[in-house]
Design goal:
- By secondary structure, the chain is α+β, with helices and mostly antiparallel strands.
- The chain folds into two domains: 3-157 and 286-296, Ribosomal Protein S5, domain 2, CATH 3.30.230.10; 165-280, Alpha-Beta Plaits.
- The protein has helices at 68-80, 101-116, 122-132, 136-139, 175-185, 193-201, 205-210, 217-223, 225-235, 258-267; strands at residues 3-13, 15-22, 25-45, 51-57, 85-91, 145-149, 153-156, 163-168, 213-214, 241-244, 251-255, 273-280, 288-289, 297-299.
- The protein is globular.
Length: 301
């Protein structure tokens, strides 16, 4: 196999509870889902150890020393003793929004190189991904899941169809600054995840959505006022629930259908960029073969 193409999907934290700290890191308990917004990644086998990454779209001007996709490719080649790859990434996931764009690219590169070089040990791939990005191990498979610890403890959950209107403030929020502000504020912890999970498992999506929330929201809002403004704007549109994903700045509202998301989006009059998305179960490890490629190319969705 010489070429692999795949989608690296974004995620939303439906809940995010900070449960404590350990070893200098915040511990979390979070209900997450992947959504149908993705970076498109193409990987081509090289005959040497070199890894090259070319990026297109929003946020494509990442310097090499800060490019996590490049780090992932180099780490994979070193860990599994393979040759390198030429990697092209078309960015669609917003940056600094809490939607896992960087982590998705790490997961996509690791999954793609695993296919290029026939490395199928998912335990080893996830271990590598976990070392490189907090959500990357989860994003190797995606879908509905509960994340705990630093995000490395992944409990897959039954799929739940959800529809979202997402608002993206112009400015992002630094993850490091959001956690530091959270510590400064000394906020109480609501522990929403357990309740939301119980309601979802009981099939009560509407009540579960009322539990959606994020312990970092107040911190993010204090750093970027547009986060709070977007939240209030979404709240006024009568959704099932509203929350922020990750450390921000993206805020989302959950609705019963895509049609209601479109209706709500048409009523929004603010300055934030709007996205419509739905929960999905990616099949990154279930390749769809191109019948014309004669074994030379593999496409994954």
């Amino acid at each position: 196999m010489n070429t692999v193409r795949l989608n690296a999907y974004a995620k939303l934290n439906l809940t995010l509870d900070i449960t404590g700290a350990e070893g200098g890191y915040h511990m979390l308990d979070s209900l997450v889902t992947t959504v149908d917004l993705a970076d498109r990644i193409t990987l081509k086998r090289r005959k040497d150890k070199l890894v090259r990454v070319t990026m297109h779209g929003r946020g494509a001007d990442i310097p090499p020393e800060e490019n996590n996709a490049l780090r992932a490719g180099e780490a994979f080649a070193k860990a599994f003793g393979t040759c390198g790859a030429d990697i092209t990434i078309h960015k669609n996931i917003p940056i600094a929004a809490g939607m896992g764009g960087s982590s998705a690219d790490i997961a996509g590169v690791i999954a793609g190189m695993g296919r290029l070089y026939d490395v199928s040990d998912m335990g080893a791939l996830k271990s590598l991904a976990d070392r490189l990005g907090s959500d990357s191990g989860y994003l190797l498979s995606g879908g509905f899941a509960r994340l705990q610890g630093r995000g490395e403890r992944v409990e897959p959950l039954p799929f739940t169809p959800l529809h979202f209107l997402i608002l993206l403030p112009k400015e992002g929020v630094s993850t490091k600054e959001a956690y530091a502000r959270f510590d400064e504020l000394g906020q109480g912890r609501a522990h929403r995840t357990e309740e939301a999970l119980s309601l979802l498992c009981a099939g009560n999506t509407a009540w579960a959505a009322k539990c959606f929330g994020n312990d970092l929201f107040e911190a993010a809002r204090s750093l970027e006022a547009a986060v709070g403004e977007a939240y209030l704007a979404l709240k006024s549109l009568s959704p099932l629930g509203v929350s922020m994903t990750g450390s921000g700045s993206a805020v989302f509202a959950c609705f019963e259908s895509r049609e209601l998301c479109l209706w709500a989006g048409s009523r929004y009059r603010g300055k934030c960029r709007k996205l419509i998305a739905k929960s999905i179960e990616p099949q990154m490890q279930r390749p769809i073969r191109n019948p014309f490629a004669l074994g030379k190319e593999e496409i994954q969705e």
